[in-house]
Amino acid sequence: MIGNETRPKIAEIGADRIFTQAQPVAAPAATFTVSARSKPRDMPVFAYLRKNYGNLALNEIDSLFGFVEKSTLYGGRGFTHRELSDRDVSQLNNAGIGVRIPMSNHDVERKEYRLNMWLLRKYHQPGNSIICTNDDLAGWIREDFPDYRIDASVIKNIKTHRKIEAAMKLYDSVVLPMPVNEDLEFLAAIEHKDKITLFANAGCALTCPSRICYVSISKINKGRGGEFQCSQPLKDRDLHGMVDFPLQPYIDLGFHRFKLLRARPGSMTGY
Questions:
Q1: Which of 22, 80, 82, 201 has the fewest other C-beta atoms within 10 Å?
Q2: What DSSP character marks residue 13?
Q3: Rounded to an integer, what is the distance from CA 4 to the centroid of its chain?
Q4: What distances in angstroms separate CA 12 from CA 7, 15, 18, 225, one per listed residue?
Q5: What is the DSSP string of 224-257?
Q6: Within the chain, which residues score under 70 in pLDDT?
Q7: What is the pLDDT, as a whole number, of residue 3?
Q8: Angle (nearest 5°) at CA 54 between 239 and 198
Q9: In terms of residue numbers, what domain contains 110?
Q10: Residue 212, domain member (yes or no)
């Protein structure tokens, strides 16, 4: 046992031998909105992030997109179960990570919007977002819930400069379809790159000629029946499976917001 007489006094130890002064964490070169699709109900959200996006630093994750309570306004994917619990949302928001709710159904009536206002009130706070396809819905939310960021869904298939500029009058951010990633000249000519979200990876939508799946999903989520439809049996196309885009060329052009999908096991696409 060391006696008191042999212990070095704190004052005699140089501070530089114990620690260095903490420096602010540098802002990341890119941030990501990542998919919570098919997240197991009983898996804590940060365990889910470690398992599926453990290669990203926490400050690179801007938001998660996925289902909360059931809503007829959902689009993009068929609602099967809640993916983000109240606890998940609270923990994400406390960590400065937003939740993006995919209210990207094609058809919305004012009465239906009013029936879903309780859900919009529940998650209405800065940092959270609503993804919209229907412009009327985006306008109603803008008026009644100004703290949401409103994102123009990729389902809108906005792929001309004129349509991008028009969408930016209503939306805070525009998610561009996957194929435009391959047209660097087109991307370079976009003026407000800070309001653009590009895909960091891509699945079957990269080469899809019609995207009829989205309309069929909108009907299914409203409880109108019908079956899921896909253009693969109807039109020939190349299927590349899941592909990753090299992000540095886009960052060099001035883009910093990216959408990151999960690969669907045993499939040629992401979700």
A1: 22
A2: S
A3: 58
A4: 10, 9, 12, 77
A5: -------STTTS------SEE--SHHHHHHT--E
A6: 1-17, 207-212, 227-240, 265-268
A7: 47
A8: 45
A9: 26-203+242-260
A10: no
Q: Which amino acid is at 45?
A: V
Task: Give, in order, the Cα–Cα distances in Å from 209 to each of 163, 176, 206, 214, 226.
Answer: 19, 16, 9, 13, 21
Position 217 in a domain: no
Partner residues linked to 99 by β-bridges:
64
Q: What is the pLDDT of residue 1?
A: 45
Burial of 211 (0-12, 13-18, 19+ CB in 10 A): middle
**In whole angstroms, what is the distance from residue 40 CA to residue 82 CA?**
9
Q: Quick one: which of 269, 195, 223 has its CA closest to 74?
A: 223
Tell whether 267 is covered by a domain. no
Rounded to whole angstroms, the Cα distance separating 249 from 235 reads 32
Which pTM value belongs to this model? 0.88
Asked, for residue 143, whether it belongs to a domain, the answer is yes
Cα of first residue to Cα of last residue in the chain, in angstroms, is 60
β-sheet bridge partners, residue 105 = none
Number of domains in the chain: 1
Helix 45-53 vs helix 86-94: crossing angle, to nearest 10: 70
**Count of alpha carbons within 13 angstroms of residue 269, beta-carbon side:** 12
- Write out the two tokens for 84: 């983000």
- What's the CATH code of the domain at 71? 3.20.20.80
- Name residue, tokens 């996006």: 53
The pLDDT of residue 235: 62
Q: Report phi then psi at 85, rounded to 5.
A: -80, 170
